[in-house]
Amino acid sequence: PQKKTSDNIINFGKEKTQKPKIFEDEEKEEPLVLTKEEPLVLTQELPSSKKAINKKTLSPAVRKIVEENKIDIQSIKGTGKSGQILKGDLISLMGSAPQPFERKLKYGQEERIKMSRLRQTIAKRLKEAQENAAMLTTFNEVDMTNIIEMRKNNQEDFQKRFGIKLGFMSFFVKACVLGLKAFPAINAEIEGQEIIYKNYYNISFAVGTEKGLVVPVLRSADEISFAEIEKNIKTISEKARDGKLTIDDLQGGTFTISNGGVYGSMLSTPILNLPQSGVLGMH
User: Fold this and answer.
1) Is 60 helix (H, G, I), strand (E, B) or coil?
2) CA–CA dist 168, 166 (Å, integer)
3) Given this model, what pLDDT does residue 190 score?
4) CATH number, domain containing residue 229
5) Pseudo-torsion of CA 148, 219, 160, 239, nearest 10°?
6) Distances (CA, A) of 76 to 3, 70, 117, 127
7) Where is the composition biased (Basic and acidic residues) (predicted)?
8) Is 53 strand, coil or helix?
9) Which of 86-95, 165-174, 180-189 comes out lowest in average pLDDT?
10) Do 122 and 107 sit in the same domain of this protein?
11) What does the alpha-carbon distance between residue 16 and residue 241 come to, in Å, rounded to a whole number?
């Protein structure tokens, strides 16, 4: 029987028969699809027929193995009491044959894809550098404590004044310019039997894009301010990622900065960008 209600009384009897709003569209929801571009976002509840396994119910030994190896416990059928996952269940996974890679199933054993003209050009120039230059790599550590602290203390004021964030690249560019002025041979190139010393400082910087690595040029870096460096780098980087760079944007560099640390590596040996004589690889 329906209970009488007034404006300030909740009818609990009626509420029990209603499905909570949050689950009303559950059946209409699209399935979860993972792509390389999008992070994993859970948009579906687990099926009601399968009870989710809580890590808190695992023994300390099992929990440690699960966390260290990032094991998806929801896909494991436990053999313990009430379906509890035991250490033996995890060890038995080592004897399970993994499924073939999805790409192999879709495209077969091998794929043959023609390189774009940009990739062909990059490959050709890098190979030429390896064959024609006597390259040497040295490794040095730099204490960034003071720069990190100064950037932190002045970030808010810098953004208000110039409308752009104060990054680290402007510091690296200015440091390179000072180094090149102190050692002019690094800002020079060899042409035939002559060495051409350049008294201008066009700093190339590597930008990774979907189509490959490009190295646009920041011109007259010695004659522009920190704010102008940050703005120019942002503008040029956006052009690179949008595929709008011109030939002029890529020519005329005298020295290159390559930040391989963004890919998680500890050290690297970047290849020269001919006809330049030096490159700074940062990690």
Assistant:
1) helix
2) 7
3) 92
4) 3.30.559.10
5) -100
6) 47, 13, 47, 49
7) 13-23
8) coil
9) 86-95
10) no
11) 54
